[in-house]
NHL repeat-containing protein (Arabidopsis lyrata subsp. lyrata), 381 residues
Amino acid sequence: MSSSSTRCRSFFVFPILFAVVLFGLLFPSSADKRHVINFRSPGLYPEGLTWDPRDQHFLVGSLHSRTIHSVSDAGVIETLISDLDLPENATILGLTVDSTNRRLLACIHSLPPLPPFSALAAYDLRSGGRRVFLSPLPSLPGDDEDIARDVANDVAVDFKGNAYVTNSAKNFIWKVDRDGAASIFSRSPLFNSQPVAADADASFRDCGLNGIVYISKGYLLVVQSNTGKVFKVDEDSGNARLVLLNGDLIAADGMARRRRDGTIMVVSQTKLWLLKSQDSWSEGVVYDEIDLDLEGFPTAVTVGERDRIYVLYGRVMEGIMGSYKEEGAREWFGIEEVWSEKEGGEDKIWLYVLIGFGFAYFCFWRFQMKKLITNMDKKIT
Ligand SMILES: *[C@@H]1O[C@H](CO)[C@@H](O)[C@H](O)[C@H]1NC(C)=O
């Protein structure tokens, strides 16, 4: 009798456990909500965003205060770097973490009417942000910087610590080695071969090569804002090829790569594109397009903890237009997780499979219970 009563209890426990698990899956709790981080820093207007996987926080740059800050999951912001050797009011643009050397690389640029300045800065993350180098980036021979200035816009880094910096004004790529030696690396004629989008407005008509990522197989991908094209650039030769895509990424800005599956994310002020390739980026496909909040002026995308995708709402244009000078400078900015419905689909299939199993188990349990009760009845009577 005692053995059948234990069995009886476990028959009750399992379906209840299962129901709890199923309930958790069907009605996702806070753990499954889109992660939105608001952080307060008056007048910051950050353009660049990256994730530091070691210290588990985001890093954002400032529009005019020569500072770089960490932002935690919970929105706690701290000043990591304050570099007064940078020209007054200089802007921090693209950021990336060099994990091999534990460094932070930052594109530095002075907007008009400040004197022209484009450089790459490297900071040692092990020593709390001590500067390793500040390398001015060379202009093309014969170029007059006072007429059209270079713009060091975004940066990617390879496993040896070489940095690749896009010049969005002049359509070429610089290389800066781990000791800070800078040179012009790729000036492919392809970068000037594509038609500027017909609907390109003043905000990005003159903006060429922009977001850049390093792919471990010895090449880089770079996106061009005013044409919406993506190029594959050889790490050694600097030779470029046009990536064939099923659409143009018009007004593209920052770019990031998810390591797990090689997905590429490209952000613009209105949307986030998700791209995949089966052949190492001879061809690629845009498989999802997610609408973003135009008012927040998203400029950068990064991959955070557990492969989550985040965009930065830094409202940079508002800052550039000068409202930061007045007392009413904006105080709050945001980093927001972005979900792809198309990717969520896989999880849903698992949910249906689980429900199916659950139902089968329930039927089996009912059947066993019935047998048990009939047996017990028999014994009692
Ligand atoms: C930097 O910005 C401040 C505040 O807007 C301004 O007062 C100052 O003149 C600027 N410095 C330069 C060099 O333009």
Remarks:
- Residues 35-338 form a domain with the Neuraminidase fold (CATH 2.120.10.30).
- The pocket of 2-acetamido-2-deoxy-beta-D-glucopyranose is lined by residues 88-89, 114, 325 (CB under 6 Å).
